[in-house]
Task: structure prediction
Amino acid sequence: MKLTLIYTLIAGVISALTAPIPGTSILLTGLEIYMIVHFAKVHDYKLGIKEIGYTGVAIYGLSTLLKDTALEVLTFVPVIGWGAEVIVAMLFVFFLGMLANLYFGKSSRQGRDL
Result:
């Protein structure tokens, strides 16, 4: 949980600093991929380049559909949109971190039978 909150805080800072600049949410996608790889290492789950690549494509596709679309629309409302962008980015990273931690935590408890 502590790592998830740290990554959520980092996402909030990145989003707050880059809020007025359209298209910079790709930085958050990089953070999300790094976070998933970090959770995998914490739970002794071996991710190869192939799995990281698949994960990156899946996260980018998901974030493009959900997060990026919402964030780019919110950017058009100058001050309120920038604040909402930070909140949306932080929530997305928080829930993704919780899911990744749950996924890799279960696999390490079940003897890595995936």
Summary: The helical segments are 2-18, 26-42, 49-75, 78-109. Residues 78-109 form the longest helix (32 residues). DSSP finds four helices and no strands in the chain.
